[in-house]
Amino acid sequence: MGFIEEIKRRRTFGIVSHPDAGKTTLTEKLLLFGGAIRVAGAVKSNKIKKGATSDFMEIERQRGISVATSVMGFEYRNYKINILDTPGHQDFQEDTFRTLTAVDSVIIVIDAAKGVEPQTEKLMNVCRMRKTPVIVFVNKLDRPSQDSFDLLDEIENQLQIKTRPLSWPINSGPDFKGVYNIYNRNLRLFNANVQEIEDSIEFKDINSPELENYIGDDASVLREELELVEGVYPEFDHEEYQKGNLAPVFFGSALYNFGVQELLDAFVEIAPYPRSSQTEEREIKPDEKDFTGFIFKIHANIDPNHRSRIAFVKICSGKFERNKAYKHIRSGKQLRISSPTAFMASQKEIIEEAYPGDIIGVPDSGNLVIGDSITAGEEIHFKGLPSFSPELFRYIENADPMKSKQLSKGIDQLMDEGVAQLFTSQFNGRKIIGTVGQLQFEVIEYRLLHEYGAKCRFENLAMHKACWIECDDPKTLSEFKKRKHQKMATDKRGRDVFMADSGFILQMAQDEFKDVKFHFTSEF
Ligand code: G4P
After folding, report:
1. What are the tens digits of pLDDT across the range 364-405?
2. Is 494 left (phi over 0), alpha (psi -120 to 50) or beta?
3. Ligand 1 centroid to 229 CA: how many Å?
4. How distant is the alpha carbon of residue 320 from its chain centre?
5. pLDDT tens for each residue of 217-252
6. Distance of CA 414 to the CA centre of its chain
7. Residue 20 CA, ligand 1 centroid: distance in Å
8. Which of 43, 473, 480, 514 has a Cα-to-Cα distance from 121 of 20 to 30 A?
9. What are phi and psi of 145, to 5 degrees?
10. How far apart are CA 229 and CA 210, in angstroms?
11. Binding-site annotation: residue ranges
12. Among 397, 411, 410, which residue's Cα sits nearest to residue 457?
């Protein structure tokens, strides 16, 4: 197969949802179709169960599983599909947002009874910002659901995207009869007792009286609703979908593996193959000859017996080849990757080559960090990896003086993984950890102990915001730093950060120093 064909057959996407809407279940069913797994139940949920925030074993279990299921590649109908998993728990949103920079499209799962939930909205905002094409899967039709037209309205209003149903449910809950596939014009009947995929029934003309034989009186309702659908929604516009302006909508029940194949079949046909990527210097097209890629995720200490890390590299252009000399742009050093791994479902294997859209795992001993660009030689820097404004702060203290080396090494590596951000006070040298969620402190404490043998203690710190400051005039900057000396800190890259105690104090500082720029994330 030629290089261009390899690119065009790739579909790299993420499945996102509010926790419990059915992301894990849908992922599993998709893998079943790809033959990547044989039996249901093989994909473990990597979510942290509700109320388990103090359950450290749960965190560990989640980590173990999430390595295996971070990227799941499989073949389906001559398409190479890469599913990128995203953590459901909102304390790990950062990880999800970063992963979304490596996908070409997204499937959003919505619970048919609950409709659009807060996390769905946040995730959609990220997709909209990046103009990522999205398909919506309305799940759990086997349970009493909201009216389908109402759901579509809710999606349009709350997710701010036009919709176009490509399948249509016949009732829901105990009366759920099946879905009519508008895209392929056929009917599939639901039978809660059978989880096998039965053949669907062709129905080019739903006005045929034969429809009554299958769904009885519901036939007339279906005809009416479909007529309304055709009246209200314009024809599915592929281009609008690919631009991120229009979301095709499918209905089904992931648990019963129902409506999933319709989704997958339409997905491979309409979802985009790898798209262009933005760098600070220029746009990179996937079909360019030279290899380029960037790191969007790092996983450390997968095997507790080895100090190993894996960097996840998204290939953006060119063919990747094992053992070829590439350039690690941040260090300027040559990088020869001798054992890159592919993520085919849950098994990892060394690969010789990979194509745009693919994700490869690169073993690393601590030189790679999130956001790094790797190329065949060209000096380019991929951009668009979001950076976050920490919201919770705590001092971190060493609780075991014999292990201070292990502690600082552990902290360093966890920060590289993007678990949290580290600041060092310029006033008293104390280390401050900033996170976006409570759970991250527990993860840090647990992992420092179990992976580095280091004990830490946190001390509360009432802090409003970390502000990266910049000023063209060195005199003003130095005056600012002198005046705010007690509140100045340094980030991991040695930059100045003003730690504002409260919104009021921040406002005062901004009023007083008009020439100083305050940034709330580390990328500006
Ligand atoms: P998530 O990854 O989005 O958080 O959701 P997940 O797939 O884990 O699904 C959440 C719960 O909803 C699970 O039940 C799952 O079995 C159920 N579920 C998923 N899809 C459907 C569906 O189409 N119909 C129905 N009726 N239920 C569905 P649970 O009891 O919370 O978890 P488990 O103990 O069964 O794993």
Report:
1. 888 888 899 999 999 999 987 777 788 899 999 999 989 999
2. left
3. 29
4. 23
5. 899 999 999 999 999 999 999 999 999 999 999 999
6. 19
7. 6
8. 43
9. -125, 170
10. 21
11. 17-24, 85-89, 139-142
12. 397
Residue 83, both tokens: 């599913």
Q: What band does 413 get if pLDDT is binned at 50, 70 and 90?
A: confident
CATH numbers and ranges of domains, the chain: 3-70+87-273 (3.40.50.300), 278-375 (3.40.50.300), 392-519 (3.30.70.3280)
Residue 398 DSSP class? E
**Three-point CA angle 372, 376, 379, nearest 5°:** 55
Site of tokens 């009286």? 209
Name the residue among 193, 213, 284 with its Cα closest to residue 7: 284
Place of tokens 């990266």: 468
- Estimate the share of the chain in helix, then strand, then coil, as percent rounded to the nearest 5: 30, 30, 40
Cβ atoms of residues 120 and 108 within 8 Å: yes
Instruction: With H, G, I as helix, E, B as strand and everything else as coil, classify residue 439.
Output: helix
Helix or strand holding residue 31 (H, E)? helix 23-33
Q: Ligand 1 within 6 A of 25 CB?
A: yes
Longest dimension (CA), the chain: 84
3-state secondary structure of 505: helix
Residue 88 pLDDT > 80: no
- In angstroms, what is the C-alpha Rg of the chain? 25
Element holding 476 (H helix, E strand):
helix 474-483
- Span between the terminal Cα atoms of the chain, in Å: 42
Q: Cβ(24) to ligand 1 under 6 A? A: yes
- SS3 annotation, 192-260: CCCCCCCCCEECCCCCCCHHHHHHCCHHHHHHHHHHHHHHHCCCCCHHHHHCCCEEEEEECECCCCECH
User: Cα(140) to centroid of ligand 1, in Å?
Assistant: 9
For residues 145 and 287, give the distance between their C-alpha atoms in angstroms, rounded to a whole number. 44
Ligand 1 pocket member 18 (CB < 6 A)? no
pTM of the model: 0.86
Between vectors from CA 483 to CA 481 and to CA 489, what angle results, nearest 5°? 40
Name the one residue in this structure whose structure tokens are 């043998």: 453
Query: What pLDDT is recorded for position 33?
Result: 82
